[in-house]
Structure formats: C-alpha cells, structure tokens
Amino acid sequence: MSCPVTIRIQEDDFDLAREIEILTKSRTDIGAVVSFSGICRADEDSAKVAALTLEHYPGMAEEEIKRHVDEATSRWPLNGVTVIHRVGRFMPGQNIVLVLTASQHRQAAFQAAEFLMDYLKTSAPFWKKEESEAGTGWVEAEARDDEAAARWTRS
Amino acid sequence: MKVKYFAWVRERVGKAEETIEPPATVRTVEELIAWLSAQSEAYAYAFEKPKVIRAAIDHAHAKPDTAIAGAREIAFFPPMTGG
User: Fold this and answer.
1) What is the pLDDT of residues A108-119, one digit of tens each?
2) pLDDT, tens digit, 9 for 90 and up, residues A28-63
C-alpha cells in the first residue's frame, strides 16, 4: 500500500478539489478521503476580526508536521496524506489550512485527519496575530486544544 | 550557537535571530533562559514568565531541563496557535 505524503507551507491559496484529485488520481485502492479546511473566522468572542497574520518557524514547521504525519501513517492504514498550511495575512473567509487523509475505509481517514489537526494546533510552530475591533494582538493558546491533542497519547 | 525568536518573544527581544556564546555553566534550556534574562530588560521582558515559553533545539521541541550542549540552533517562542 503506497502512501504518498505532501506537506507544503505556502502563502498561496489551495484548491480543495484539485488537491483531492491529485491525491486520488489513478488510485483504485482508496475508498475514503476526509478533508479538513481551516478558514479565517470573523467572529472571535465578541470582537469582529478584520485579519489574521500567520507566522511560522521555517524548517521546523515542515519537520514537525512530517513527524506527526509519520506517526499517523504508522497508527492508521492510510493511502495518502496532504497537509497544506498557509502563512501571511488573511481576511475572514480565506483558507488557512488543509488536511487530507485517504484510506480504504472511512474510520482511519476520519481519525487520522483529526489526529493531525489536533497536533497541528498544539505542536507545529505557527502563531496567529489577530487584528480586531479590540486591537491587534497575538492569539493565546487554548487549553481545550491541548486536551484534544492529549487524548491521542498512547499509554 | 544561533538563537531564533518567534511571535511575541521576537517582538519583545527586538530581533528575530542572533548568535550567542553563553558560558559553559549554562547547561540547559531553562538555564539559558535565565542567562538571557539577565542580559537586558528586553530579554527579561520576553522571558518574564519562563513557564509559558516553549523552546526547540535543532527543530525539535525541547523541555526546560534539556541539555543545550552541541545545539546548532535554539528557538524560543510562545505556545503554538496554528491550524
């Protein structure tokens, strides 16, 4: 079972349909593709968000994502993984992140996508700066994201 | 060794990266944070809550008690908020 892995950090937008097509092209062993798109949201608590700026640690970001993709492919029978994380300044409604997981059956694809997103949020070196009516400031990490990632820890 | 700073740690330190030569008595990540904090008010401000600061050695997450010997690149940053 081959499992091509694509990891990209880019300023440019991505095309969800095109990325799924690339992942599944000339494959007949894939029965399920799960996609997660993270989108810049306008409403954060009560303040309207005007823009988000994403900063990353070049080099480590790619390596950290790769470490978690490797763990995902060792834990679930996957037939392909694509992770694209954008950096730069985004307006509400714009794409920020894409995770695609392909497998023979849906359970592995669902679980691996969720696992990868939980670790992307807590462990990959990206930081969000938010511009809103309340001012400009760095987004604080949320305990619920750490809790979400912790449930994948194997005892 | 090269040191990199990201997000508000970078803003508070006032630079994105630099090369430093800490004394041999500075052996771990937390000792390096303490040593940097004593260098100037900017570092002291950046590292005022050392428990919040995350570190990476050569692109891998490191704990406060991780040894820094042999490190080529150490990075300091706030908890991550990507995705």
Assistant:
1) 999 999 999 999
2) 999 999 999 999 998 876 778 999 999 999 999 999
Of A59, A117, A125, Cβ closest to residue B80: A125
Give me the CATH number covering residue B31. 3.10.20.30
Residue B62 lies in a domain: yes
Q: Please write the tens of the pLDDT for every residue from B42-62.
A: 999 999 999 999 999 999 999
B-chain residues within 8 Å CB-CB of A125?
Answer: 6, 56, 75, 77, 80, 82
Instruction: Tell me the C-alpha to C-alpha distance, in Å, between residue A134 and each of A137, B18, B80.
Output: 9, 33, 22
Chain A residues touching B56 at Cβ < 8 A: 57, 60, 125
Distances (CA, A) of A74 to A27, A71, A133, B40, B72: 21, 5, 44, 46, 30
Number of domains in chain B: 1
